[in-house]
Each structure stands twice: as C-alpha cells, then as structure tokens.
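REQUEST FORM: STRUCTURE PREDICTION
Request ID: SP-0412
Submitted by: Lab K.M.
Chain count: 1
Length (residues): 697
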Amino acid sequence: ALTLDGNTMYVGGNFTTIGGQTRNRIAALDTTTGNATFWNPNANNYVYQIAISGSTVYVGGVFTSIGGQTRNRIAALDANSGNATTWNPNANSSIDDLAISGSVVYVGGAFTSIKGQTRNRIAALDATTGTPTAWNPNASGGTVNAIAVSGNTVYAGGGFTSIGGQTRNYLAALDASTGNATSWNSNANNYLIALKLSGNTLYAGGSFTSIGGQTRNRIAALDVSTGYANAWDPNANNIVNTIGITGTTVFVGGAFTSIGGQTRNRIAALNTSTGNATSWNPNANNTVNTIAVSDGTVYVGGNFTNIGGQTRNRIATLDTSIGNATTWNPNSNGTINALALSESTLYAGGIFTSIGGQTRNRIAAIDCITGTANMWNPNSSSTVHSLAISGNNLYAGGNFTSIGGQTRNRIAALDTSTGNATTWNPNAGSTVYAIAVSGSTLYAGGSFSSIGGQSRNRIAALDISTGNATTWNPNANSTVFTIAFTVDKMFLGGGFTTIGNNSSFYLATFEDPSLLPVQWLSFSGSRMQNTVQLQWNTATETENNYFEVQRSIDNLTFEIVGNVKGYGTTLQPQHYQFSDELSQEFASASPLYYRIKQIDFNGKYEFSKTIAVQDHQTSETLNYLVYPNPSKGNVQVAGYAGTLIKVISAQGEEVYNGQMKDELHTIPLENKQLKGLFFVSLTSPDGKTEVKKVVLK
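STATUS: Completed
RESULT:
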C-alpha cells in the first residue's frame, strides 16, 4: 500500500526495514530523501491499505498490534506520533481495503464481525467511534478487496457473488445511504482487482474474461451510466492488478506479458482512445501490484527486482516518456501492494521490511526526490494492501493487527506527521483490501464480515471521525478488492455476484453520499494574548454553505466556537477570517488546536487540517494548485500574493521567473514551445519553498 500526503509517502506491506530504518510493515518516508521518518507504528503483521484524513492515518490488514496498542486488523494512527488512537473497530479477519468519505470509513475484507457487530466482508464505520453504521451490504461468496466512493454510490470489488441484497458477481455499485445494490450491473465472470475512473469511463482490471456484456480479457472500459463495456479492448493475457491514468494514457500493471497488441512484461501504457500499447516499455521482471501517477512521474510497486532497465527492488519511479527508471531507488526488500502520493511524499504499503535505506515494516513514507524513507514509521505487524490520504491522515488497510503504535485490526488511520495510529479504529474482522475516502466517509472493501462496530459483509462505509460504520450496507457475498469514484458514483470490483440486494457479477455501482465542494489553499492562525485570529483561503467552492470553526485544548475533543458563511459556488480563490476571543478557561492554555469543518448545502462536510496556535506565534498550512497538468500551453497557479515563481526544466534551465500579484497567476508558456517535465518552484512571502512538477506537451 502506498499513500502520499504532502512530503510524506506512507507505505504498508510485510517489510521489516525500509528507508534505512527498521520499520515493521508500516512506515513514513520522506519524499525528498526516501528516508524513513521517526513515525513508527510497528505493526506485527501485514498492512494492506492506508488512507489519510486530517491528522489520522487509517490502516487495514491482518495485524493484531500496531501503534503500541492491540488493534485487530484495523486501526487509526496519529499522523504525528504513530500511536494508535482510541478508534478501535476490532475486526475478526483481514481488512483488504478502506475508503474515507466524510465522517465514514468504508472497509472491505474477509471479516464477518467488526466492533462487536456482524458485518460480512464490508462495512461502514464511524470515523470518530469506529462503530459500524446501520449500512450493511452483507457480502457473501468471497472477500471484498477494493472500494471506491463517488457521490451517493459505493463501488465494491472482490470475490463475492452476493452483496447489497442482490446477486452481483465480483463488482457492484451500492447505495451509500441504504447499502442496497443499484441496478448498475456489469456482470463480470471473475474477480476484479483494480478500478480507476476517468470522466464517464470506469476502467476495470482483474482476472475476468467477460464484463459489461462483452468479451474482455482482464481489462475493460465501462460506461459509468450503463455498465456496458465500450469498444476499448487491450486484451491482456494475464491478471491486471493496478491502473493509473494521466491525460490520454492508461498505465497498467499486473502479471501479463502481452497487452494492447504488444509484448509488454507486467507493465504498459495504453492509449485511452485505441487501447493500443504505446512505445513506453519499462519491462518489469516480476509482478507489478500498484501504480501512482503524479506530475510526469510513474511510481510503481510490486514483486519486481528489475524495471526500466535498472535493478530496482520492488519499488521504482519511471520516466513517463520512455519508461526508464530514474535514480530514485528506495530498494524495498518485499512486495509493494499499494502506493499513495501526497505532494513530495510517496506512501508505500506491502510485505517489505526494508525500504528507502531504512527498516520499515510493511508501510513507509518515501521522499519523491531522493527515494529515501523518512522518519515516519507506523511499523505494521502484517501486510498492508491499500492506502488512501485525507487531510493529515493516511488510511491503511490490510492484514495487520498492530500499526502506528496501537492495536488496529486490518484498518487504521495514521497521523502523517508522526506515523501514530489515531483513535479512529473500525476494527475489521478480516482483511481490508481496498479503501477510498470521499468527504467525511471512508469506504473499505475486503473479506471482512464486521467492521466499525457493525456486521458488514466485505464492504462498508465508515465515519471518518468515529470509525463507526454508517447505515450504508451493500452486503457483498464475496471479497471486494477495489473501489473507485466518479463525481457522483462509486464503483466496486471483486469476487462478488450479489451486492446491494441485486445480482451483480464482480462489478457494481452506487451513488456517492459524500461529495466535497471545497479545494483548500491555506489555513493559518496567530495569537496575541487572549485573541486568536484565524484565516483561511479556498481555491474553488461548489455548493459551499458555511464553515464551522472548532477549537480544542488536547487535539482530541473539539468544540464549536463560531460559523462563517461560505461563498456558495465559485472558481475564484476566496479569503476568510475569524476572531476567537478566549474566555478565562482558555487564556492559559497553549497551544490551542483549531480546525475548520466545511459544510455544504446538502449537509455533507469535510475537515481542514488541524493547526496548533501558540501565543505570539503564527501557525499555517499552505497549499498551491498548479493546473492544468499536463498542459499544452499556459499554466495557472492558485496561491498567495507575493509568491516568487520559477519554472525550471529537468535539465536545470530556468524558463520563467515571476511573482504572484494576487491569488491567481498565469505562467505564460504557450508560445515557448516547451515539452517534457518541468519543476515549478513556489516561494511564499515568508520564505517557505514548495516545488510542483508539471508536464508540458
């Protein structure tokens, strides 16, 4: 499992060293150096999946101890400390995947009980309490290995044949409110392992040979409205494990040796229009399990030891132009199952015990520039299968029972700063193979039958705050392996044949309950004696009703201190501020913790990152958006007035130097006839520098 959050890559698997440090099955790697950070949850078994929400890292697997606590197969780790939070769903079998959507964590796996509730292989957990919601799709016939949330739909994939009250073979779409399978039914004839959404197309990979009413060998493109396969047909000769998309290219990994009409060993780039393989050919010598694409770089993990013409042990970065391996080389000693990117950090999860020059057990955070593991080290007790990032948290799913210093059974939330498990603890009863976050909900798929304190069969929606399962319960009859989202739908793939009370063979679709309307740019706070001044900026807003300002003295229990009206819908950056006049009760408290709860007109919500504010000091989180990426001309930067901008080619040549005069800036590159990978250096007015990658075509 790999999940990227900022400059940290969280990694889960079965390793014991990674990034130059001892890290048991889970770790956080610095994306610049590749070194393992100090974050070290120390899981005692596999970590399969990682997802992040705020300052919480959710993880799933087969571990029974993680973050310094007993946690059965799912856990929430503090992103700063790596300690397990009190969140403890306590699954009775593996957590294979998890997905966060708002305040719900969806989990899938092999479990049949979670948080004392019967949930067969899928469940929705309250992100705060870890208790399953009433949502209960009840999967049977196989595990839930993958989960994706989109709109009011939860997609589950795996080995199930029944879920959500219907026959659904391996892939299903579940209603996020009821857990029932929707009418969407691609009816695959075998397992789905990977799902990736692009516009109105759902790309599916696995071991099937028929899907969406057509013969399709192991990879297909499905219409998200009808479930039918379109004409796109790369025809892989063996299993497809992972899919990544950028522009007009679909990157795929697996066990195949032929795809898109060409010989391609286990990894390939396919044209989105024709399905033909491009000339890009890294030629891996063993299975590719996971792919993450970001800013002109393809991150890959698997069982290989040679790829892109170089010796690379199980993890590598590849040039998107020709497929050569870069110098980035974390050198994992075990399989990589999942990757997640967050700015300059690549999170990895799998079976490894060493990566990036450090001991890291099954999960790690790797610097995207240097390939070294940073100090972040959740230390998973067993395999990590899946990872997802949300806010300050990396969520992980797998087989682990310990991660982030706490007991977390197969699913956990890890603090991206510390690697500690947060209190979020859905406690999956079996493996979590897939996780995905949508708003305040995390969706998890796998082989479990209990999660989030409820009976959930192989797929579940979990509250991202409490870890409790929501009422959404598609009830898959076999494993859910993969989850993907569109704007308003969730797709699930796996081994099921029924899900959401409908017959759905291996692939299903559901409405997503957790659409999020705001892109955050920054959140800062400064304190002068008994007054705290908060400011935040957004890049875009859609149906944004208002912001709820929350304060805490311990970073655990928050209270509401005020509301600020939102802009509604806008594509322009917006600025907000709020003054908190402290009562005597809080006058001596330092630091004080603040977060913003953004609430849309439909009542859906998400949290900002949490900041710590001390007297006479300023605390700030900054984000820059660089878009479009890839670009065929000018590039836009959303950020902060006064920011210094430099654009530098991969060869070190400076092609642009300027300064932002307001919060939206155009970099004039249209007439420069530039192509390839470029670095955008952004230096804020206070001297902090952030580097973004952009591909010019």
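NOTES: The chain has three domains: 2-511, 518-622, 625-696.
Reviewed by: T.R.
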